[in-house]
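Sample A.
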Amino acid sequence: MAVTDQTEAEAGRIAAAFAQAIALGAAQEGATAPNPAVGCVLLDAQGAVLVAAAHLGAGQPHAEARAIAMARAAGVEAAIHTAVVTLEPCNHTGRTGPCSEALLATPVRVVWYALPDPNLPAAGGADRLRAAGLAVHELAELLHPARDELLARARRLLAPFASRVQRGRPFVTVKQALNAQGSMIPPAGQKTFTSAASLLLAHQLRRRADAILTGSGTVLADSPSFTVRHLPDIAGKIRHLSLLDRRGRIPPAYLDQARANGFIPHIETDLTQALHALAALGCNEVLIEAGPALTQALRDLGLWDEWVLIQQTAAGDTVTTTRNL
């Protein structure tokens, strides 16, 4: 299908496949580092969905390869005509083989991908597929009203991985809660003042993060565990805990407890260096859960990508998410 020849029905099926692929990838956020979260949908020549899959984690098949394996297991590989994937198929051999070659081993004739691979050593899959005679298109070429929304969702899905490989630092999400008076400090004897729904959101943010970063003041004031509660955590997930402590105030007992809670703790003295160190360890996204001073420093330095503000009001909590992409 040439891009200029898209019918409304064809464009609608591709848009629906992109929406499904992005949702599948998003469901794996936090589980795939140092790899990106990616979803793939395989269609037949009439645009019907044959199979859909996501990449589940480093060392496991990429989304395209997993979808192809599922199609083979279901006996529908011969019907594969179009592949819709959230990221350009890779063209290199790492822990797994190139997705470009995996696709070429099927009858696929058309490939749509949302975004080019930001990891240059793995890029080039689109050119490889075109050289083999396939029709290859980017989501930006889709003639459909949902295109821009789908692109925005695909960019957010890829953003943590892209930040690490392009900028050498993780995608930084700041979670900030303010009470009705504009203070971040909970009442005496409490560790939070937010609602149950806001607390669930905070733990959802923890779940998708590969690391937590905080300051020594937060540790000394609250001795937070930073564990994921209120919803199931990712099985086998081990997170890094970056602790800014210029004066060596964090007690060894806290570090021991962090290890017991499944973290790998690191003492750092410089914020920028701490972020680069986490990227070097393969962290795609870091969640900032810190006090006013460190939170303001991140804002002043512009070292943030997503700011989740939970504001307590008389009518209940409001949540505002701002992106600095």
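Sample B.
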Amino acid sequence: MALTPQKSASPLMVIIAFATVYIVWGSTYFFIKMAVDGFPPMLLGALRFLTAGILLLTWCKIKGEQIFIKRNIIHAAVTGFLLLVIGNGAVIWVEQTLPSAMVAIMVSSAPIWFVLFDKQNWRVNFKSTSTIVGLVIGFAGVVLLFSEQIRGLFDSSVGLSKLPGMLLLLIGAMSWASGSLYSKYNNTQGSASVNTAWQMLAAGFIFLPSSFFNHEVQNLQWQNIPTHSWLALLYLIVFGSIAAFSAYVWLLQVRPATQVSTYAYVNPVIAVILGVLFAHESITLLQVGGLVIILGSVLLINLSKYRKEKQAKLELA
């Protein structure tokens, strides 16, 4: 099958989009943890994605974009199910019981699944030594970053009880990679914003009945939801969904999937930095080493793509 050509994009816009995905999604682990203090998981997903989807679709309509295209909506529903219901839903559910550090580790396996599932680019990716080495080093860096937490988790008597959650996160990471690649290679008409809005609405409409079937809505005492959970939900809607998820979907259209997937290595770095700056958490030399290794792996992966693009431009000149 022929490779799907990348759409052209402004280098500045690409940088801004990567920065948004790297930084904002790195903070969402913390805000999801805050949100599930007051909201049950399925209801949290419904409120987050329905609200964000409605707001974004309304904005697209105001701008005069065509939003009701059957083929686009079907593709968006499939993508939304894989990315947001299974992928993000696993994170929301598991953060009820697992430490956010362990969640970050399991989610960081996503770049590996991108390479394994991206059949159209097997010839390119598996021939690139720097890409493969970068992916392996990056995952090793994440494990090193949270090695102390991993050791503490499995040294405890409740370590085995965390295994189902860890397996669920692994499935979520695989589903996220599958959904991202499906979105990338099933090009649709219309803007990335419209497609993103339908993806979030599709996810929200699946989360909502799931919340009712799980008796979350019926048993929830709205007046007891703490303020910080409401504020966390607001942050997840505006920044985590509308800003960062829109940037992610757009990046899939203009950059190679393996390059976009590096967000999963950078997000734990951002999470640790935010913890040190705002939660007064300490950082060890071992963690500093993990941060350096992760950032080095991202540079290694991007360097391979940069060299290929530069060579292609020289050949066309």
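B remarks: The radius of gyration is 19 Å. The longest helix spans residues 285-316.
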